[in-house]
Amino acid sequence: MVQTTPFLLVLSLALVAPGLSVRKCVLTGHWTNDLGSNMTIGPVNGKGDFAGSYHTAVTYTTNKIQLSPLQGSQHRTNQKSQPTFGFTVNWSFSDSVTVFTGQCFIDKGKEVLKTMWLLRSRVDNINDDWKATMVGMNVFTRLHSDK
Ligand code: BTN
Asked: How does it associate, per the subunit comment (predicted)?
């Protein structure tokens, strides 16, 4: 009889523990950032590769903004819940390319992508190379309608 209590304790732990697994931060879905830009990331394949689209809210150019493709890669961290990643946006409406790198975090129960980026613009002359790259940060949160 004395044995019953520890047995029940172990049994209830075994039943409850799987449900307590750490929540994963998942890249797939719709995201918006602090500038008001929106992006959609498709499924992440077995190698960690993914594709998607990016609609920037701002541009360095005077061109009309258009939806642009992105391609990226997530670190192979199936065991880990907050993966690092990087992606490239090849802008459809300008000669520029932006590379983003960051980490997908669970912060106060919500997914957040903390990123840094380099935006490379085309310049006509090699002497202008020094001013062709901008750097910045963006924070993305999942669009409410997702998941
Ligand atoms: C361009 O102006 O040539 C292309 C658009 C660049 C938009 C930049 S990329 C980094 C930053 N984050 C955004 O969401 N938009 C700007």
From this structure: Homotetramer.
What's the pLDDT at 32?
Answer: 98
* Residue 59 Cβ < 6 Å to ligand 1: yes
The values of phi and psi at residue 110, to 5°, are: -115, 145
- Domain edges within the chain: 29-142
DSSP per-residue letters across 66-120: --EEEEEEE---TT-SS-EEEEEEE-SSSS-EEEEEEEEEEETTEEEEEEEEEEE
- Kindly indicate the confidence band of residue 1, based on its pLDDT and cuts at 50, 70 and 90: very low
Q: Is 60 in the pocket of ligand 1 (CB under 6 A)?
A: yes
* Ligand 1 contact via 117 beta carbon (within 6 Å): yes
C-alpha to C-alpha distance for 131 and 116, rounded to whole angstroms: 18
CATH fold of 29-142, please?
Answer: Lipocalin (2.40.128)
- Please tell me the pTM assigned to this model: 0.86
In the structure encoding, which two tokens stand for residue 63, read together? 């061109």
Quickly tell me which residue has 């830009």 as its tokens. Answer: 37
E strand or H helix at 142: strand 133-142
